[in-house]
Amino acid sequence: MQMNLSTRQLRAFVALAEERSFTRAAAQVHLSQPAFSALIRSLEEEVGTRLFDRTTRSVELTAEGVVFESSARRVLREAQEALADMRELAARRRGRVSLAVLPALAAGWLPCVLARFHADYPGIELDVADVLSEDCIERLRTGRADLALAATRVNTPELRTEPFCSDGFHLVCRRDHPLAAKPALRLADLAAHPMIQLARNSSVRQYVEAAVYPQQLQTVMELDQLSTVAGMVRAGLGVSLVPALTLFHFDHPDLVTRPLPARGLKRQIFLVRRRDRGLSVAAQAMYEHLMASLPAAHASGARP
Amino acid sequence: MQMNLSTRQLRAFVALAEERSFTRAAAQVHLSQPAFSALIRSLEEEVGTRLFDRTTRSVELTAEGVVFESSARRVLREAQEALADMRELAARRRGRVSLAVLPALAAGWLPCVLARFHADYPGIELDVADVLSEDCIERLRTGRADLALAATRVNTPELRTEPFCSDGFHLVCRRDHPLAAKPALRLADLAAHPMIQLARNSSVRQYVEAAVYPQQLQTVMELDQLSTVAGMVRAGLGVSLVPALTLFHFDHPDLVTRPLPARGLKRQIFLVRRRDRGLSVAAQAMYEHLMASLPAAHASGARP
DNA sequence: CGATCTTACGGGATTCGTAAACATA
DNA sequence: TATGTTTACGAATCCCGTAAGATCG
Question: Is the pLDDT of residue A302 over 50?
Fold first, then answer.
């Protein structure tokens, strides 16, 4: 009892039920009248009974046709809606993208980028998690994120990593600090000065420690939030070393930021995605948009 | 943006979503694998986007495919249900017939007929109105009845009448009445005896009056219900003249029923239906069943 | 007789299955 | 290399439109 039914048959049926004329209904569905007649006949065979009583002068629904009409209209409408929904997704007029982005990028660089994305695709919902690298990866793994911008390279069978941008480090100190005016600033110059550091599990800290190794820095304090770091530096407790993308935190008249030579100390930002499944249409649009919006190599960070 | 979508495509989609393998899904829908592949491709083109991420090793729904799946399943299910319902109607396993039948037929003859009909088509609902001829016709005209068995011939552009059966008349009297034993009973013999009559708007009364015209009968009483007539006759108030199909009302030891000669006094029962619309499948089945169950010409009426 | 549905039929597009090519683990 | 999907292609089928036929008012 394998049946087949097409929306064309249903459209023809509905048209005929409305027009009560093969000729007019055929025109409505852009078919010759005999072809239309055959279409109705095929539907009646499928259904197993006559749906219309036709004489040369009048066309009327049979009792069975009346019963079928409501079903036919409902099925047709739902099919059309389903298809229209899919086409909206395909046309990127609707959809949803979930991002997991390092807080530094999320606060400084991302807002303008997403604003432009939203202007291009106003119907696509955005879900941004501004979390540390580790959490970014976890969200990707559990499917809560489509794309992640994180600082850790992941090479598992399920995740795919590609370089996104690199981020030079800058010294942050008070305007009156000796290093603020030193001509050729180098990493080694920092050893003599007390440092305000970020927490050990932050990617920034790991980059810094790796860069000076085996040398060690004088850590006067460990903090979680960069805005707190800014306050401490302003208070003269020490200097700090942060990626260029986070410099907007230190945009203050009392503070000076000075770039360090990129070689040796440069953190890499990666774009990570799942390997097993492709990107949704919306996520693909986001991917392309992100790739076209790479932050300037040594940018001082866009302000929100 | 004229779209077309067939249940075959939806079945293929659902099969592939379940099986996650073109080969297995193709087998499930009885298609060669390449043909199946083309079917999926056609659906994806219709929808406007990829629905499956396929590598040679794995087939998975895309994000869009996941969205489509629920719609596809719903549309497919509703289409199948609609078609199954129609086939049940066509197979006469379900349906509904509305009859309008003269009370005489409805009480005496119809029950056995409908019992057999119901045994043949247990899924078809029956709606019987046991009303007088006039009402039968009215129900037909307003669409509340599919078929009517009435005593009046109707020849309008909307109704079609065909003879169904004829019904001879019988005298009903008490066993001790003079007419009970009269050898050759004739219509003229009744003139001398007081009659219990039915109401003037009943078809029986009209037949009787027409048959004796221009002669007149002695009307001692007019009643609406035959069972009341039976009581009156038993009480010795008079005799009565009723169609054979109603004789079951007079099945009593004190009463005698005697047939009158059929010529001159015989009422015709007609089967009436609408002219504009055909019969539903169920009504057609009923029509054929009724035609095959014609009451015996001079039957004394089947007992319920 | 006229308007309208059905049947007949030839041409063209679609779809099928087999076989070969291609891709990934 | 083996499994499984896509491509290639000839054949069968289906579907369309034109033209002729049938039917009811």
Answer: no
Q: Kindly determine whether residue B68 and residue A91, on different chains, have CB atoms separated by under 8 Å.
A: no
C-alpha gyration radius of chain A: 32
Which amino acid does the sequence have at A73? R
Say if residue B228's pLDDT is above 50: yes
Q: What is the pLDDT of residues A145-184, one digit of tens each?
A: 999 999 988 878 888 899 999 889 999 999 999 999 888 8
The single residue listed with the structure tokens 């953190």 is A267
| pLDDT tops 50 at residue B33 | yes
pTM given for the model: 0.84
Distance CA A304, CA B18 (A): 46
User: Whole-angstrom distance between the N-terminal and C-terminal Cα of chain A?
Assistant: 63
- B96: confidence class by pLDDT, cuts 50, 70, 90: very high
CA of A282 to nearest chain B CA: how many angstroms apart? 9
β-pairing verdict for A255-259 and A240-243: unpaired
> Of B282, B233, B172, B65, whose CA–CA distance to A67 is shortest?
B282
Query: What is the predicted pLDDT for the residue at B261?
Result: 84
Q: Near strand D (CB < 7 A), which residues? A: A 8, 30-35, 38-39, 42, 55-58; B 21-23, 33-34, 37-38, 40-41, 54, 56-57, 59
CA of A35 to C1' of C11 (A): 15
Angle between helices A281-291 and A110-120 (to 10 degrees): 130
B110 forms beta bridges with none
Q: How far is the CA of B7 from the C1' of D14 (A)?
A: 17
* Contact status of A162 with chain B (Cβ, < 8 Å): no
Judged by CB atoms closer than 8 Å, whether chains meet at B71 and A80 is answered as no
Mean pLDDT computed over A286-296: 91
